[in-house]
Backbone:
């Protein structure tokens, strides 16, 4: 393959150990991959000492500046250029790396990447996307928080980006697209969402537009791509996490409530582990900052090496699938797409 | 007690059987309760024939007009006055019933109830609220879909109504209020939500304002009252339902995957039933249309008699708790509340 991935070695709760451990797992999974580590040379070097083969395909670029989880995006923009995150972004900008992965501050990553890499031609605003499990398979959802308020043009862009992602990375030949709404009827929801639906129905792209999709249908697997504004997407994603935790807590207490159910737990453990694996957040780790002129992946800050390796995998898949070239082609082809959309007032 | 509850006997998938069955369960639970059934006299009468004690405390008001699940609110307003739903609303308006329960069309119920009953003094827009389970206890969430776009004034009204509900019906002496947002920091979210937070911090009411709350924290039980616009609330509620169904489906498949896990399931059944009971949607059935000058409860259309009885229970609790009188007192006391809020542009 020969892909090089830039890693912000200092972002996230377990840095740099989790980053180096994740890189080692990814190295085994993707033969030919190379890494550029950005961060504090000493601990990174010491960790790499434990992985001979990884060290052979890695370079360390030293910096002592780190963007913290508390830094506001504005502060990150001021001090960030020389930080581990900023240098990793620059490596992508200069074409030295095919993509970057950071488990650091999301707001800072988006702000710095947007400034340094710019958006792809035709894209007004980048979006945060992630792959999620559904009852029947999986889907990609965007935006998850980069854009709190969205007009119809933003939503249409998200739909196109999500469609290309599902095609190139999830390998679905004809992914279906749904707009998250409070009902399926054409009159439901607010102006921006209704206008986005109208545009997606008429647009000159071979897009499989399903229409509106409700919050419960998303998890039943009604569509392959779920498009929403960043406020709603963030609430939906965190609600899903919260409900999953609530159930886990209820189950744990229930299993402990009697000797019989403890025994039942022991016998069911294999089955329960299958469910756990199916919804393991580490499996779905690696949110994509789509729409940027470069591949930028945000890992969960609290993940482990297994989760971080999966985030690296997302960067590899996007680079291999030629995601950004395809996006650029689609928007090139659309050309006049701005016109019918922009005459409508945004919400 | 001597409370009279009006029932739309024709609303919902299982009407009128579920309605009559639910009334019988509620009759046993709330001694002294009386019912006014609105709908097709013949089947209702036949069903009541099976419950002697229920028949003794029930009156049937015949009508053949029914609002269907497909009727738009506008159509319901045109033809609805003589319908089972419309007549039940009128019974509350005339003071003949302390409240009404319908498992019919939500949009029609809200539109007709709003027109006939009007909102309470000080309330701009009614909201749909429901009680939901959390890891530690339960919470009330509103709005769940009545108001797709909300300004700060709407959100503040929802907060006050939710607080009074949690105090009078859930019996919490000092319920805490959270505004659903994408982060906890003061700068997160959009203008309406930030301004609502500012107002709730300054307001002259003994309200325990927690601040912003994220989608996952809701289910961890961070607050007793979760306030949001109807779009976000609807998506959050349906996401919660969808995730619960997804887990149930995964678990079922996993338990069936081997003989050992089947045995494990048998031994765990008691524990699993406890969890099921804890999150049983029938237990939480009965969404409140808060802010109307009358008690209006919407039952899920697909519930059974047990679920419908719980929706009747919500109407009884709200009437007993004097919910609407307290709301009126709070807004009376506030008086000047409109001023600081209305000077700010709504989103």
Residues:
């Amino acid at each position: 393959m020969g892909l090089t991935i830039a890693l912000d070695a200092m972002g996230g709760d377990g840095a740099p150990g989790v980053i180096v451990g994740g890189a080692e797992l990814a190295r085994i999974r993707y033969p030919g991959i190379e890494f550029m580590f950005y961060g504090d040379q000493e601990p990174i070097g010491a960790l790499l000492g434990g992985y001979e083969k990884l060290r052979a395909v890695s370079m360390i670029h030293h910096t002592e500046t780190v963007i913290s989880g508390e830094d506001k995006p504005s502060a990150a923009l001021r001090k960030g250029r020389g930080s581990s995150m900023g240098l990793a972004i620059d490596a992508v900008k200069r074409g030295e790396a095919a993509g970057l992965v950071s488990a650091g501050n999301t707001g800072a990553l988006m702000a710095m990447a947007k400034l340094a890499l710019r958006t792809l031609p035709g894209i007004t605003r980048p979006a945060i996307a992630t792959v999620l499990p559904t009852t029947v398979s999986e889907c990609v959802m965007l935006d998850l928080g980069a854009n709190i308020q969205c007009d119809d043009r933003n939503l249409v862009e998200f739909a196109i980006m999500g469609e290309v992602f599902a095609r190139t990375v999830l390998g679905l030949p004809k992914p279906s697209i749904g707009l998250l709404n409070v009902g399926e009827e054409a009159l439901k929801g607010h102006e921006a969402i209704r206008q986005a639906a109208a545009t997606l129905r008429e647009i000159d792209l071979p897009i499989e537009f399903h229409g509106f999709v409700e919050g419960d249908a998303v998890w039943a697997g009604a569509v392959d791509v779920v498009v929403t504004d960043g406020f709603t997407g963030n609430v939906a994603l965190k609600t899903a996490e919260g409900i999953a935790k609530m159930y886990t807590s209820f189950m744990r207490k229930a299993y402990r409530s009697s000797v019989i159910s403890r025994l039942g737990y022991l016998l069911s453990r294999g089955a329960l582990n299958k469910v756990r694996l199916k919804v393991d957040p580490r499996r779905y780790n690696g949110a994509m900052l789509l729409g940027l002129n470069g591949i930028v992946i945000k890992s969960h800050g609290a993940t482990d090496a297994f989760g971080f390796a999966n985030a690296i995998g997302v960067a590899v898949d996007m680079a291999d699938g030629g995601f950004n070239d395809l996006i650029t082609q689609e928007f090139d082809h659309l050309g006049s797409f701005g016109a019918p959309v922009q005459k409508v007032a945004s919400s």
